[in-house]
Amino acid sequence: MIVIGYGGSGHDFSTCIFKNDRIISFIEDERILREKHSFFPGMGQKLLKTPALQYTLSQTGVQLEQADFIVANSSLEKYYYARTARKADICFINHHLSHAASAFYPSSFNKAAILVIDGAGNSEHEGVLDSISLWVGEENRIDHIVSHGGRAISRKQYGETIDPTEHSIGGFYHIVTHFVGFGPFDQGKTMGLAPYGTDKYYKALRAFVDYGEEGRFIFPLEQLDALLEFGSQLPLEHFEVQADLAWAAQKIVEEAVIHAAAYLRRVTGLDEICIAGGVALNSVANYKLYKTGMFKRFFIQPAAGDNGTSIGAAYYGAHVLGQLPRKTGAVYV
């Protein structure tokens, strides 16, 4: 069996080839284009040439026409596959499902709870984006429990300076990352800055968000705008202010992740958890969740961001569309 998975959204594009019982090739387009996150002016024209696809096909000797399934996630920009010879054959799956598949199928667990948290991804409802989703995987199946998200909001309303996302842990952290002077994909720097700060702004930032039922993170547009107004009144050029904001945002992310995971633990009763989505790259939050003892065993997809959705798409094609039995008991990728 041969499955080709396409990954990414409007950034972090990638291609993955699964053959027989394992991944035989995976690469992000940024590695070929030499542009971080494949996010730059004119990127669409370069991505039309499908650099990652061409690389993986060349590396493996697989021909596109040999693929039994071609799978992509629902948030993938159309220009990424616009010139693919078999674009009519692409099976599109939910964005968060591709994250969930990337975490569960490569794990050694026969059954596990699955937590997906990111900035946002296309939901099943028009005009709504998912930011948290909870799942349970068993053997070849991944079953949906609940998803949380909010309205899709245009960047143009904010001068293209931020990606505004309602009810999103990743979106909240992205705004604070913008406050402290880092770029749109620099949330890891905010995590690194946080230990240099204090709790000075924790109560102020905590007032803009809340934690709701079923693991929800509550951060409506009105509070998003209020947070931006709050930030505009601070002397953001001062290192101490930047560090204190990072500390507060990091603390809130840790609380929110644990809140969502606690609900997932209650409804599944499972000791094993698989995690993916961009927020899963926050290793400090992952460690804090581990220290709670809530779950005994973890599998966190290393390519947890949108780059890893091609991995999830390929595994989904093999184990769901192709009904290939999973190997469990040992991690294989």
Question: What's the topology here?
Answer:
Blueprint: E1 2-7, E2 14-19, E3 22-28, H1 29-33, H2 43-47, H3 51-60, E4 69-73, E5 90-93, H4 95-104, E6 111-122, E7 128-138, E8 141-151, H5 169-179, H6 187-193, H7 202-206, E9 210-211, E10 217-218, H8 221-232, H9 239-268, E11 272-276, H10 283-291, E12 297-300, H11 309-321
Parallel strand pairs: 1-4, 4-5, 6-11, 11-12
Antiparallel strand pairs: 1-2, 2-3, 6-7, 7-8, 9-10
Description:
This protein has 333 residues and is an alpha/beta fold. The chain folds into two domains: 1-106 and 302-333, 2-Layer Sandwich (Nucleotidyltransferase, domain 5), CATH 3.30.420.40; 109-300, 2-Layer Sandwich (Nucleotidyltransferase, domain 5), CATH 3.30.420. It has eleven helices and twelve strands. The protein has a five-stranded mixed sheet. Strands 8-7-6-11-12 form a five-stranded mixed sheet, sandwiched between helices. A hairpin with a 5-residue loop joins strand 9 (210-211) and strand 10. The radius of gyration is 20 Å and the shape is globular. The protein starts with a strand and ends in a 12-residue tail after the last helix. 50% of the residues are buried.
